[in-house]
Amino acid sequence: MKLRIGWTALTALAAAAVCAPQQTAPPQQYPFQNPDLPVEERVNNIISLLTADEKIACLGTNPSVPRLGIRGTGHSEGLHGLALGGPGGWGRPVPIPTTQFAQEIGMGETWDPGLIRLAGGVEGYEARYINQSEKTHRGSLVIRAPNADLGRDPRWGRTEESFGEDPYFNGKMVAAMVKGLQGDDPKYWLTAALMKHFLANSNEDGRGGSSSDFDARLLREYYSVPFRMGVIEGGSRAYMAAYNAMNHIPMTVHPILREITMKEWGLDGIICTDAGSLRNMVNPKLHNYYKTNAEGLAGAVKAGINQFLESANLYRPAAQDALQQGLLTEKDIETAIRGEFRVMIRLGLLDPPEMVKYASIKGDDEVWQRNEHKEIAKRVARESVVLLKNANGLLPFDKAAVKSIAVVGPLADVVALDWYSGTPGYVITPLEGIRNKVGGGIAVNYAPKTDIEGAIKAARESEVAVVFVGNHPTCDAGWAKCPTPSDGKEAIDRKAINLEQEEFVKQIFAANPKTVVVLLASFPIAINWSQENIPAILHITHNAQEEGTAIADALFGDVNPAGRLVQTWPKSLDQVPPMMDYNIRNGRTYMYFKGEPLYPFGFGLSYTTFQYSNLKLSAARLAKSGDVTVSVNVKNAGRRKGDEVVQLYVSHLNSRVERARKELKGFQRLTLEPNETRTVTLRVKAEDLAWWDEKQNRWVVEEDQVKFMVGSSSADARLERTISVVQ
């Protein structure tokens, strides 16, 4: 498989840049090899032993020093499953199969942090297994995941890589995945979670030189929140700086790398560049921020960067020039690379394997074949299915009553992998999933995607029709190319949000009024006609190896859909501000959206109904340093077992500054049997209600009246109570 150069795939070049690889370690022992010493003492010893050339070499993505017996590790992609070869060209030409989950936006649509933590654990286990097994010995233990960016605009080409548009929600999901990737051992990590892309990185067109501009309040209250939660709640100690600038300072050299993430949050590990960022800062057609690579590298190192995702032929000469010109001191490099060795120690790479919990993960079979991994992948796929419409109870289909079903559409017999997919050991397409579900009892009438007339005939001759439409996650085209305007991916934003295939949907519906649309989409799509006319619509994202199983389970009621949307789906681009307007107060996200969306944030239907009652707050007044417990009873009032996602929003009634109309502050997914009632309890701290005071440069919890709203989406508050925030 051809490796695509031009973006983060430069990993292959950078990972080879280990420190002094031609030499091997002498037999003597060094203090850094003593696991009983404090981490900082071990790091001090390593730094004292390095030559100047080795220090420079360690600015790559693999801080190995064979001369000293220091074994480091490079990076592997892992947005929704380990990627060691796949559609994007990650890894070596011969791919290694790994478990593949739904795209990150689909993982978000589960609204289940506990499940996402399990998925992260699967990925981390497979990374260890493949890296440590003698048969494979591939990949790395620093995993580029999760993506903590916020999906503020439906046109963003990499929307599929984000958990959604809400900072609190994304933060919870990011923290969960980080915990899964890093494991639960108190001393050693399973893998190191390297979050992407800090910060405000949600436009692809022009990203190498664009600037995301907004005020300090939005920096603190919105754009940085998922990263902060990933560090403080999740325990991540690594991230990648974004291509873009923030307020005209490239993120690769922005002061907030050190001032906020390191000094305030305590990040003391890896901060790497994105591929090509060093060149972008010098390029007159992009950032044009420095005259030379030496100046750019010096600025990045001083800002906190300690790994350059570049060819060694670029960053090493730049570092040497920076030292010779006095732009950088050897001490500056020493200070920067310390974080790399902290991460290697936490991974257990410098300790005897018998001491490291995860060092024993290895074997000769294919790790993706583990039943536990398959089941977790299946759970993620099932929980990610969103029911958007179900008029007159068309769904679920009754296997005892339906005798024939048409399965048609361009995505009916494919699991479309995206730019960051690995290679799944197997996939179950929608057609396969339906055939597996119905066996020989129901006739499945299928027409290939190119046979339009055959599809119409199949629909006409079947009792029900299911049409599979949506985007192609790689645009079915090369780098930075998307022939279909409503498609997008890395390096190219969407130019439209309509569904071109809706004309095909109309033809199928005309042939059979009992038509179900299954929308396979990586981002919001304005399916206005389908919502108005088609009786039932399901939504799921791409990439899940169990995609077909999940869809068939939902269609026939073996699983009651309970996924919820994680972005506002507008009816048209007329409802969305200009792409480069990063001030979300101008009408972005459910918090500030103007007008009525096609589907609101948090939306999703069920085959059953839920009733809310007895909303209680643990106190009528909330001290600025206190917290409040919110409890509500939720009853399954229908005849089917189902999951409900209870969502808690707050609204500030008397704030001194402009606040969002509502903000998510808690959620919980729960399963209820018919007629079962459970009490859901959510805790909100007063500090969660704070706003950032730019003049005082601190968080402020003000005296206020705050409305607590509980319901099933951002637009469906069932119950509400108001609390006073006091001194």
Secondary-structure blueprint:
Blueprint: H1 11-15, H2 39-49, H3 52-57, E1 75-77, H4 104-108, H5 113-132, E2 142-144, H6 167-182, E3 192-193, E4 195-198, E5 211-212, H7 216-223, H8 225-232, E6 238-241, E7 245-246, E8 249-250, H9 256-262, E9 270-272, H10 277-282, H11 293-303, H12 312-324, H13 330-346, H14 371-383, E10 386-390, E11 404-408, H15 430-438, E12 443-446, H16 452-460, E13 464-470, H17 502-511, E14 515-520, H18 528-533, E15 536-540, H19 547-555, H20 589-592, E16 610-617, E17 621-623, E18 627-636, E19 642-652, E20 663-672, E21 677-685, E22 691-693, E23 698-700, E24 704-713, E25 716-726
Parallel strand pairs: 1-2, 2-3, 4-6, 5-7, 6-9, 11-12, 11-13, 13-14, 14-15, 17-25
Antiparallel strand pairs: 7-8, 10-15, 16-18, 18-21, 19-20, 19-24, 22-23, 24-25
Strand arrangement, major sheet: 10-15-14-13-11-12
CATH architecture verdict of the domain at 379-592: 3-Layer(aba) Sandwich
CATH topology of the domain at 379-592, which one?
Rossmann fold
CATH first level of the domain at 379-592: Alpha Beta
Report the CATH superfamily of the domain at 379-592: Glycoside hydrolase family 3 C-terminal domain
* General form: globular
Q: Main sheet?
A: 6 strands, mixed
- SSE class: alpha/beta
**pLDDT < 50 stretches:** 1-17
So what's the oligomer here?
single chain
For the record, give the distance between the C-alpha atoms at the N and C termini, rounded to a whole number.
63 Å
The residue fraction in helices comes out at: 25-40%
Strand content: 15-25%
- Averaging pLDDT over every residue, what do you get? 95
Query: What is the radius of gyration?
Result: 26 Å
Number of strands: 25
> Count of helices?
20
